[in-house]
Amino acid sequence: MSKIDRTRGSIMELENIIFKKANKIATITLNRPKFLNALCDQLIKEINYILDLLSKDDEVHVVILKGSHKAFAAGADINEMKDLKLISHIKKDFIKPWEEISKFKKPIIASVAGYALGGGCEIAMMCDVIIAADNAKFGQPEINLGTIPAAGGTQRLVKSVGKSKAMELVLSGSTISAEEALNYGLVSKVVPIEDLDNTTINLAENIANKSLPILILAKEAILRSFESTLSEGMINERRLFQSTFELEDRKEGMMAFIEKRSPKFKNN
Fold first, then answer.
1. Over 90: is that where the pLDDT of 227 sits?
2. 215 φ, ψ to 5°?
3. To which H or E segment does residue 62 belong?
4. Is 122 considered catalytic here?
5. CA atoms of 162 and 158, how far apart (whole Å)
6. Of 46, 67, 73, 122, which residue is the catalytic one?
7. 46 catalytically annotated
8. Do 9 and 16 meet the contact criterion of CB atoms below 8 Å apart?
9. Active-site residue, from 67, 75, 118, 119
10. Distance of CA 242 to the CA centre of its chain
């Protein structure tokens, strides 16, 4: 168990995650091994607590979200859900806090080994890039529990793998392998499990060396494509591109290219 200080002194006990940061990279490790990292309310609170800190920390450019070799996250915590009624959801939507992951402005890489099922698959899809170990399994098995996905499993999955495959996975509750996930576009890369950490860190380091404001703008432009028409997305992309010309990092990047040297970005 660890403690993290907020700027003004309040502290949260981290019982369900492990947090560290180094070299512009922050790593959040889900840590409920007895429950295959099932997503309980407190775990989500701890993730959001850390993401809030990181959103204000200009020393961190990219976040890695990972689990264990056995499970990224096997889903939501069924024990917390089994006795809920409709009125419970009306009074308190326990899924809503999960959405903070998708709203985080900086790049997030999901490093997935083992089970990424139900809510685990959904929070992986909330991240910007998914790197999968060769033992990873993805799926939305909520149908087997007499319910349906509620954190984007019927929405983001369609945009990743297409309507037909999403229908198959959601309606049957079946899982797909890492290689199938790669073929359908759900993940960006599959590597041997022993190479997962190094591959993820190498990508994170590559991203972390870029200008933070430019990373944020690039992420915003891509995400807008999921929620707008092509013409609207193109207008937004052009405006964001033009806005980069007010940044010193844009000037530095272009001058470094002309002078055949590595850029020295200062996040301004």
1. no
2. -60, -45
3. strand 62-66
4. yes
5. 5
6. 122
7. no
8. no
9. 119
10. 27
